[in-house]
């Protein structure tokens, strides 16, 4: 039995309608394996967050430095649908990236969040070390993160200050690592620590290093802390994660520990990882951070040297891009900006 032309048209329209409805449902509800990046909030490291100072330096020289030294962030939108992704892409305000770059397979969202939090904590510790090292302030070795199932677990505590290993004074993380690596797995070491102002001796039996079974393993990450008990540095960055705030936190600490204002009262923003030795490292999302800084009112942006080429590709008009390779260069550039002298640009 052959269908009439009218019946065929009706069937064709019905099939088309089903396809359209299916496409709309997929586009509206189906999640795509991408995340969207966009400019995030900026935070003045010389200001407050939720009513508390972002950086506090008890015993500092300048309790209330003025101006802005804003750390910058990138907002990440997850769980986007096909239609949302298309709209974001056409808007030009977002950058789509494969989701697995930010949420690796095998890791839960909570595990990723915890890792970002750990990176920020490490960035804060490095900022303290970089500021004290730059200012040539006396430093000591603090106990940072303690590995799970490490020999030190339950014996040492985070923020203990390590003073000596088997009676040998230690002042740097390198000295601690040298002392521990020279021991063999199974040996017991005597660690003299200062815990909340009280000195005590802790005995720890070393395990084997995962990367060198013949060397001793304590299972802690040393960090640089102030050897002056009158100097206490604390941070309050809220739920911001990752390592890229290191440079701006370092500069805020330096501003608190030196007279005058690094910014000259100007609105400065920036980004960059930091290590205790002062080197500024590359970060991701530089173009989004530049836009966020400009929108917030910044007149100059401290750009890690490795990010300069990318930054120049999409720099907002009116935002001065200052190239920095280490903390000393950043401080010198801010002083030059304040005095009107030449400074390095991207």
Protein model, in words:
With 346 residues, the chain is α+β, with helices and mostly antiparallel strands. The chain folds into three domains: 30 residues; 210 residues, Ribosomal Protein S5, domain 2, CATH 3.30.230; 88 residues, Pdz3 Domain. It is 32% helix and 29% strand. The strands form six sheets. Strands 6-1-5-16-19-20 form a six-stranded mixed β-sheet. Strands 7, 8, 9, 10, 11 and 14 form a six-stranded antiparallel β-sheet that branches. Strands 2-3 form a two-stranded antiparallel sheet. It is globular and about 95 Å long.
Write the layout of secondary structure elements.
Blueprint: H1 5-29, E1 34-44, E2 48-49, E3 52-53, E4 55-58, E5 68-77, H2 82-91, E6 95-98, H3 109-134, E7 139-146, E8 161-165, E9 168-169, H4 173-181, E10 188-195, E11 198-205, E12 207-209, E13 212-217, E14 220-226, E15 232-235, H5 246-257, E16 267-270, E17 273-274, E18 280-281, H6 286-296, E19 300-304, H7 308-312, E20 320-324, H8 327-339
Parallel strand pairs: 5-16, 16-19, 19-20
Antiparallel strand pairs: 1-5, 1-6, 2-3, 4-15, 7-8, 7-14, 8-9, 8-10, 10-11, 12-13, 17-18
Helix pairs in contact: 3-5
- Tell me the fraction of residues in β-strands, as a range: 25-35%
Helical/strand content category: alpha+beta
Work out the number of β strands: 20
Q: Describe the main β-sheet briefly.
A: 6 strands, mixed
Give the name of the CATH architecture of the largest domain. 2-Layer Sandwich
By CATH reckoning, the class of the largest domain would read: Alpha Beta
Oligomeric status of the shown chains? single chain
What is the number of domains?
3
Q: End-to-end span in angstroms?
A: 77 Å
Helical run tally: 8
- SSE arrangement, N to C: HEEEEEHEHEEEHEEEEEEHEEEHEHEH
Active site: 244, 289
Keywords: Hydrolase, Protease, Serine protease
Family: Belongs to the peptidase S16 family.
GO molecular function: ATP binding; ATP-dependent peptidase activity; serine-type endopeptidase activity
